[in-house]
Write a structure and sequence with these properties.
Blueprint lengths: L2 H15 L1 H4 L15 H12 L4 E4 L7 H16 L3 E6 L4 H10 L4 E4 L5 H11 L2 E6 H4 L4 H6 L5 E4 L10 H12 L5 E5 L8 H11 L7 H4 L2 H7 L4 E2 L3 H8 L7 E8 L3 H18 L7 H15 L1 H14 L11 H9 L14 H12 L5 H17 L4 H15 L4 E4 L3 H19 L8 E4 L5 H13 L3 E4 L14 E4 L6 H8 L11 E8 L2 H14 L3 E2 L15 E6 L20 H10 L5 H19 L5 H9 L9 H15 L9 H10 L7 E5 L5 E11 L5 E12 L2 E6 L2 H11 L3 E6 L5 H18 L3 H15 L8 E13 L2 H7 L4 H7 L11 H8 L6 H26 L6 E4 L8 E5 L2 E9 L11 H9 L4 E7 L7 E6 L7 E5 L5 E3 L20
Parallel strand pairs: 1-6, 1-7, 2-4, 2-5, 3-4, 5-6, 8-13, 9-11, 9-12, 10-11, 12-13, 16-21, 24-25
Antiparallel strand pairs: 8-15, 14-15, 16-20, 17-18, 17-21, 18-19, 22-23, 23-24, 25-26, 26-27, 27-28
């Protein structure tokens, strides 16, 4: 390695193995910069020291779980050789993961359909690397599941892992996938809602991370077990933790607003009559009857938009037939899959959108309605048609959108139904133009909904991020997508589920959101909507009227009435007076209760459910406080590693001063390339500095697998030594800062490091203690998890046993100016080999160096040196041949310098050698080869030798002979005075430069 390679290797080692500095080099040169946050260092640090990596990152919504997972993936790629990575995601998130993988320099392979599975997996096998991104619902289905199970994955990432629930195909597929490589496969689960009220389901997901656990889940449902998983298998941080860690308001305020919209008499009549019809449909029906299911769907569709409502009513009225009865066997299944039980995610595996499910339900269950119900629905249809083009909610939403667009803010409008999205797509831009003089072009509006192609999703998201103003989306985008380019979110219809509301707001209220955010939910001033607002929203939320106090923070009050609250403290902690406890209600039950006017008791149930969910999460996954995160990281990070600005200053200094890189606006691309392409220090070596700096030693403290010897992590530590051993220890940014200061002086490689140092054992022993007690003390948590649970709760340990090794890589020492001048031209090892003192060496003058550099016409000294060198080499070759073949053997040594592109031809009985000779009066190991000489050397590489004979002015010649000088596998020998040849290939570094010469002659 040359000096620059060593300097890059030192930087790379610090970048790769410091959790804080790794993030500065994570962004690929063409990617959007990744801004690191301190809580993200924690998960990376845990991954660095555990083997295999098994982790549930259970941070709150918006804390950057995707970036954390990809940072871990890249570390495993660069450090442990992880190449084949499987990313299982909800369908809508495929393109986002593709973009994020590219952002960190990974190679994504996105599978869009079953027909692509085999080809993509074969391509990844052939390439030997790649991130395969696929919908979990595609991967789990036969025959594709067998294809995925047939690949030896190095890492599996499962996003929105709470959707992998016990007893489903998803769970069975993931369990088999992980079970194949239980003791080597790395697994990351990502979920903001890891526990949804069912301990058995949560523990089943934990058992995916640790298949050695007992399948008897009641034994695991214990505070002792949960305590052991915290900080080992599970990490959870909150927005509050992030704000405190960063010492600033990372998550700015998020305002929630409930807007009541005044409506026309035609609209009011429509909703009043619809309520009566729906009540009549269900008053004598069972809760899980076809009639009740149809009524709930009609209520939700009417609350969404007139377009969706009228379409559904029309289809039901047309399909209803008293003479043909359908079968009601699937009603409970539909209710469970579409409306969840306890706020679980909707299962839409068979449908692109809930609209498709609605169509299927109408087709199956409309025949259950009788003639009277059919006539009543037709009457409602006529009332709806009288409303005409006037849509009060649409006009109010347009006013809110216009207000924020004029302020330069991007807006997202969420709706549950694709029909309503189509309605908004058609009508909203028209109202914005006519009422507010805002004309949106095609480029200004993006859409997201199920059934879109991957290219359309990617294009729509990119357009919205770069130049878009308005995004209209169904709930396919409410989970997982990063949409913080927008700061305003509108719920076109009120979500019934608090979890759904949190998921939607979480799209904009997240890391890297520079603005305060605002969320709106719209209610019509109709009896149906007002009933829900008063008996549900107001009772479960901390919202109050904004009237009477004027515009809030400069914002107008929209609608007939507006209630506001701080989203961070939106949910009430205690049930309101007069409510009663019950089992956690589903969305279906809430809608049904609103039709029956029986919502009053549900507010307390929802508050209890939310409280229970929070308590369950905090019980089994208590979030780390800022102090806990900081304390855990302080063992491996220096205090200044927590200051991003300081890190950048230090890195800029190292690049500019040590690596001689000019100052650039963005250093991350440079750092990325060093991390991606850099080498490690192959052989321990010494560096000399032209200044009295004392002695420094750079050590690599290594964490390795005790059984296989595989290196999991290494941490570079710089030790300043004194008479008593260790004087001071530097690591992280302080290490780089100290090395920058040292290497700001002229420096060079002295040669390999010799192992004849009695002080080294003492220093290494102290570093072992430092590593065990400080850098790797976190390993005790993993060791405790394995040992303390082994007897009753598991079959065998999960994590590999590790040990700590210490290796010295570089020793830096100050040397005198005179000695440094000599060592600039010849390695220390050669000086010692030839036994040369300072008086035995002729140092080249600056003039001589310049003449050699600009060697157009040789000086007299150079010509004489060349002739003396020729004589020395020819004599050496004669002596060699005499010893090998005898005095009268069949050999010859000829001077051919005047007729060939080399100097000496050596003929042997069965071989020829072609020798180029370069001579120097001072001790300078340089040879300039003409283009013709170079081409000859390359063409005859197996017979070509280069001799450099230097220090002729002192009559103590230093002779180096190089075989294949222009090849990577060159061999270098020092020829001593007695003719002995010593292999010094590892002692000498070789630099080859190309110089172009142009000579003009005037005759």
């Amino acid at each position: 390695m040359d000096l620059t390679d060593v300097e890059k290797a030192i930087l790379r080692d610090v970048l790769l193995h410091s959790p804080a500095l790794f993030y500065t080099s994570l962004t690929a040169p063409t990617g959007r910069p990744i801004d690191p946050f301190k809580h993200q260092f924690q998960s990376l640090y845990h991954a660095m020291v555990s083997h295999p990596v098994r982790m549930l990152i259970a941070d709150e919504i918006g804390l950057g779980k995707t970036v954390q997972a990809l940072a871990i993936a890249r570390y495993l790629e660069l450090q442990r050789g992880a190449r084949k990575i499987l990313v299982l995601v909800p369908k809508i998130l495929r393109e986002q993961w593709k973009m994020e993988i590219k952002r960190v320099g990974g190679v994504p392979w996105v599978i869009h359909s079953g027909g692509e599975v085999r080809n993509v997996l074969n391509a990844v096998r052939n390439a030997g690397r790649g991130y395969v991104v696929v919908s979990i619902d595609l991967a789990k289905r036969p025959p594709h599941r067998e294809e995925f199970l047939g690949v030896n994955w190095d890492l599996v990432i499962i996003d929105e892992a709470h959707n992998v629930t016990l007893g489903t195909q998803r769970f069975d597929f993931v369990r088999e996938l992980i079970g194949k490589g239980w003791n080597r496969l790395n697994v990351l689960l990502l979920s903001a809602t890891p526990h949804r009220g069912n301990p058995k389901d949560y523990l089943a997901r934990i058992s995916l991370l640790d298949p050695t656990l007992t399948p008897l889940y009641p034994r695991l449902d214990d505070p002792h077990f949960y305590g052991k998983t915290h900080g080992t298998l599970v990490l959870r941080r909150t927005k509050k933790t992030v704000n405190e860690l960063e010492g600033r308001e990372v998550f700015k305020k998020c305002d929630f607003n409930a807007v009541v919209v005044e409506i026309t008499e035609a609209e009011r009549l429509f909703f009043r009559e619809l309520q009566n019809v729906l009540f009549e449909m269900i008053k004598n029906s069972r809760e899980n009857s076809p009639e009740a299911l149809l009524a709930v769907l009609l209520r939700k569709r009417a609350a969404s938009s007139y377009g969706a409502a009228l379409k559904t009513i029309s289809k039901i009225a047309e399909s209803a037939n008293t003479e043909r009865k359908g079968r009601a066997e699937k009603v409970s299944k539909y209710i469970q899959s579409l409306f969840g039980l306890g706020y679980d995610e909707m299962e839409l595996e068979e449908f692109n959108e809930i609209d498709d499910a609605v169509e299927k339900i109408i087709e199956e269950y409309s025949p259950f309605l009788d003639e009277g119900q059919k006539a009543a629905l037709r009457k409602i249809l006529r009332l709806g048609e009288r409303i005409g083009e006037r849509d009060s909610k649409l006009e109010m939403v347009a006013g809110v959108v216009a207000y924020h667009l004029k302020k330069g803010e991007k807006v997202i409008v969420f709706t549950e139904f694709k029909d309503t999205l189509d309605y908004l797509t058609k009508r909203l831009p028209k109202v914005l133009a006519e009422k507010h003089r805002i004309h949106l072009s095609r480029e200004d509006i993006s859409f997201l909904h199920g059934g879109m192609s991957s290219n359309d999703i990617e294009e729509g998201m990119a357009r919205f991020e770069k130049r878009g103003k308005l995004l209209i989306s169904t709930d396919v985008a409410s989970e997982g997508l990063n949409l913080q380019v927008a700061s305003v979110l509108i719920n076109y219809e009120a979500p019934w589920s608090p979890i759904k509301l949190e998921q939607r707001v979480g799209r904009i209220w997240r890391l890297s959101q520079p603005r305060e955010t605002t969320a709106y939910t719209f209610f019509l001033a109709a009896e149906t909507d007002l009933y829900v607002l008063e008996n549900l929203y107001q009772k479960i939320m901390n919202i109050a009227d904004a009237l009477g106090s004027g515009p809030k923070l400069g914002r107008p009050i929209f609608g007939q009435r507006m209630l506001s609250g701080d989203f961070e403290h939106l949910w009430k902690e205690e049930p309101v007076e007069g409510t009663f406890e019950r089992e956690k209600p589903s969305e279906y039950e809430l809608v049904l209760a609103s039709i029956k006017r029986e919502l009053s008791g549900y507010a307390g149930a929802i508050i209890n459910t939310l409280k229970s969910l929070r308590q369950n999460i905090e019980k089994v996954v208590p979030p780390d406080t800022a102090d806990q995160v900081r304390k855990g990281l302080e063992s491996i990070l220096s205090p200044r590693d927590f200051d991003s600005n300081f890190i950048y200053e230090v890195l800029e200094g190292y690049l500019e001063i040590v690596l001689k890189k000019p100052s650039v606006p963005e250093i991350r691309p440079l750092l990325y390339r060093i991390l991606e392409n850099g080498k490690d220090v192959e052989t321990p070596l010494r560096i000399g500095v032209n200044k009295k700096v004392g002695e420094y030693r750079l050590y690599s403290i290594r964490l390795v697998d005790s059984e296989s010897g595989e290196e999991l992590h290494r941490y570079p530590v710089l030790v300043k030594t004194g008479k008593s051993g260790i004087k001071k220890v530097f690591y992280g940014t302080e290490l780089l800062m100290e090395i920058t200061k040292i290497l700001s002086n002229e420096h060079l490689i002295l040669g390999p490091l010799r192992r004849d140092d009695p002080n080294g054992i003492h220093i290494e022993g102290k570093l072992m203690t430092l590593a065990r007690d400080r850098f790797y003390n976190i390993k005790s948590k993993y060791r405790d998890y394995d040992t303390q649970l082994r007897r009753k709760l598991r079959k065998r340990p999960l994590f590999k046993e590790t040990k700590i090794l210490v290796k010295e890589l570089v020793r830096i020492e100050g040397i005198t100016e005179g000695r440094f001048a000599i060592l600039k031209h010849v390695p220390q090892g050669l000086i010692e080999l030839y036994g040369l003192g300072e008086n035995d060496i002729e140092i080249p003058t600056k003039e001589y160096e310049n003449i050699v550099e600009r060697n157009f016409v040789p000086l007299k000294d150079i010509l004489e040196s060349e002739q003396r060198a020729m004589g020395i080499v020819m004599e050496l070759e004669r002596r060699r041949l005499e010893q090998e073949y005898g005095l009268n053997g069949d050999w010859k040594v000829e001077d051919v310098s005047l007729r060939e592109h080399y100097d000496i031809k050596v003929t042997e009985p069965e071989n020829e050698r072609y020798i180029e000779v370069k001579g120097h009066k001072p001790l300078i190991l340089t040879a300039e080869i003409t283009s013709a000489e170079y081409e000859f050397a390359r063409a005859h590489r197996d017979r070509y030798w280069l001799y450099i004979v230097a220090n002729l002015g002192k009559n103590r010649p230093v002779i180096l002979k190089v075989f294949r000088p222009f090849e990577d596998k060159r061999k270098i020998y020092a020829v001593l005075e007695d003719g002995r040849e010593v292999d010094v290939t590892t002692e000498v570094t070789v630099h080859t430069r190309e110089k172009t010469r142009r000579v003009i002659s005037l005759k």
